[in-house]
Structure formats: C-alpha cells, structure tokens
Design goal:
single chain; globular; two-stranded parallel sheet; mainly alpha; Acyl-CoA desaturase
Length: about 375
C-alpha cells in the first residue's frame, strides 16, 4: 500500500512496523474508552435527547404564533436546532451502534429511526458499511462525489462537471433527499450498470419513509395550526432547509477539504488493521470550534476520530483528539484541522476548481508520505 500526503521536509517513509505499531496504539485507545463507558455517557445522550425534544416542542409551539414574524423566526430557529440534534448528535451516532452497549431499545442501532426522509436501514448500508469500510477508495466509496460531483482530481473530467457548483448547491439544499437516493446508485442505473429491478425493495422503503416525513411536516402539523397552515408549512420547510445546509457543510468539511487523500482499490488490497487506520486518518479532516459547535455538528467536527472509532460514543471524541493528534505528530502524519470558514472555503474552492478541465487549473502539490507494505510470498511448485 502506498499512501501519499504532503510534508514540510519532503517525502516521509513510514515503515510497515511503524504502521502496525500505530495501529496497536489506536486499538489500545479504543479499548480504554470501551472499558470506561458508563454513567456519564448515558447521562450525556439522554441530556441531548431531552434538549432535542424541548427544542422541538418550543419550535412547533412558537409556529402557532406565526402571524408575528419574531415568533415565526424563533420557531424556525428552535425547530432547526431540534432537527440538527436529531440527525447529527442522536440519529447518526445511535445508528453507528455507539449506544448499543446500553441495551435500551430506543437507542438500539438496528431499530432506531430518525427525523429524515432516508430509511435508517438504507443509511446504515450506504454509510456505516460502504463509506466507513471503503473510506475514500475510488470505485467503492460512493461518498466521493455522491454520484453527481467531481470532488477529487482522480475522477476523470467530463463536460458534465462544468455544472459542478450548481449540482453542489442543489445537493446542499436537498441534502436529506440526496442521502435517501444514495443507496439507489441512480448514476449506475442511468449508465446501465444497474437495473431498476434491483432496487424495487429500496424504492418501497423510501416511499414509506419519505411519505411519512412529508405527511408529518407538510400536512399534519400545518393542518393542526388551522388558519396558520401556510406559515407553519413554510416554517417546517425552512427548518428542514437549515438542517440540510448545516449537515451538508459539516460532512463536506470532514471529507473534502484540501489535504484529504483518496486511494485506489489496488493500493488498499489486503489492508492490515494499521493500514486501515492510516487510511482513515489521511482520508478525513476535523473542524475546530467551541463545545457547543461540536455538539451541533454531532461531534463530526472530529471526523478523524470518528473514522478511527465510528462505534465509540461521539462525546468521547474531544478527549481522544489530542491523543490522536499526538500519534500523528509522532509518526509524521498530517492532522488536517481548521476553523469552519477555512475548511468550507477549501471545499467550495475545490468544487469550483474541479468543474474545469484539468489543463485549465493547477493541481494540488505533490504528496510525500509513503507507507511501506509487508507482502506475503507464496511458493509455487515443490
């Protein structure tokens, strides 16, 4: 496996022994957290659930006073916070199995449903399995470009990508719908690589889940507000829009800013545990911010730690971050982090740059970390 990234002093060679030593250190960190899970983690997630429900009640209540703009705006703000918490700090993390150890049905990853049009079982497949197993591997991780964007230089350019910024804006505004359609692989269907008959079950699940969400947000609650039907409907739509923009921004900042690496199937074949860890560290990025910012991001502002330990409760990522950063420094690996304005600016800069033909723009600077692999040899004959 050859993994490349930038260093100040030129190429750095990371030996196979270094990689496996790093892997053992990260395994040790994970085991230490698992052994320490208990009351404070239980109290944390229940405090977030309590806050989420409180914001939802407040938001829907304030929308009943929607004839007065300040109340409508406050209702949208509260409902937006509720949806963000539900999707990011609760839904995303619960469905990763981060609280399965509590053995409580309401927090069980296999049965949990979130306030989102995407069925949780389909999300667990496209995200938990495909993305986290094959992170940033071309041809395997469909989060690279989401089937519509050119987000990496190794994606072959086509005139279609001139619309890259437009597609990105559309995906941002309709992000929950993009996530719902992700598992269908619509681009592969249109290219004849997959048949519609293969996705009938997925379509039925999406119809049921999206139907319930649309009914709840755009019919039931607006009807309950009587003469305020239109303002309540608009408030619910606005809250969903805010949640979509926020989720898109946090997720893209964790996966696509400058310095994040992608890989080929060939160079990641027969990966060791240590090599998998290194790929996660080079294939993701963090966002610095306050404690409140981290909560509102579902702690996906600690995307590096999340990719290393996706099934550990996300409230533990802030305490793991300095330890992971220390390991990166020890082994000469980059620790990609920065404020939201820097990371989001980098992402949008890449979206616009990669819309253009490669000959028109300058590529990223040459990488410089080489991870050496140990190869098993097999005798033939004799």
């Amino acid at each position: 496996m050859t993994i490349l990234t930038e260093t100040k002093d030129g190429p750095l060679v990371l030996s196979a022994e270094d990689v496996e030593e790093l892997g053992r250190a990260l395994d040790d960190l994970r085991e230490r957290v698992l052994a320490d899970l208990g009351a404070r983690d239980r109290e944390y997630i229940y405090s977030i659930i309590k806050a989420q429900r409180g914001f939802e009640i407040a938001g829907r209540g304030l929308l009943y006073l929607g004839l007065f703009p300040p109340f409508w705006l406050a209702g949208v703000a509260a409902l937006s916070v509720s949806k963000i918490l539900d999707n990011m700090e609760i839904g995303h993390n619960v469905m990763h199995g981060q609280y399965d150890w509590m053995r409580e049905r309401g927090l069980n990853s296999r049965v949990f449903e979130w306030d989102n049009v995407c069925p949780s079982d389909q999300w667990r497949h496209s995200h938990n399995y495909m993305h986290h197993t094959y992170t940033n591997i071309h041809g395997r991780d469909r989060d690279i470009g989401y089937g519509i964007l050119r987000i990496d230089e190794n994606q072959k350019w086509h005139p279609y990508y001139l619309g890259n910024p437009i597609y990105a804006v559309a995906l941002m505004l309709l992000f929950e719908w993009g996530v719902m359609l992700h598992d269908l692989e619509v681009d592969n269907i249109l290219q004849g690589k997959r048949d519609w008959s293969e996705v009938k079950g997925l379509l039925k699940g999406q119809w049921r889940k999206a139907g319930r969400q649309v009914l709840k947000d755009y019919l039931v609650f607006p009807l309950l507000s009587g003469p305020l039907f239109v303002s309540t409907l608009a408030g619910n739509a606005a809250a969903n829009l805010v949640r979509n923009i926020w989720a898109y921004s946090i997720i893209f900042c964790g996966h696509f800013p400058a310095g994040v690496q992608t890989f080929t199937e060939a160079e990641t074949a027969e990966e060791t545990r240590g090599e998998w860890y290194v790929r996660q560290m080079l294939g993701s990025a963090n966002i610095s911010g306050s404690k409140l910012f981290h909560i509102m991001s579902g702690n996906l502002s600690h995307q590096i730690e999340h990719h290393l330990f996706p099934d550990l409760p996300a409230n533990r990522y802030p305490e793991l971050a300095p330890l992971v950063r220390g390991l990166c420094e020890k082994y000469g690996l980059p620790y990609n982090t920065g404020p939201l304005r820097k990371q989001i600016g980098s992402v949008w800069g890449k979206i616009f740059r990669l819309a253009l033909p490669p000959r028109w723009v300058r590529g990223d600077s040459a990488p410089g970390v080489i991870v050496m692999r140990q190869r098993k040899t097999t005798e033939v004959g004799g």
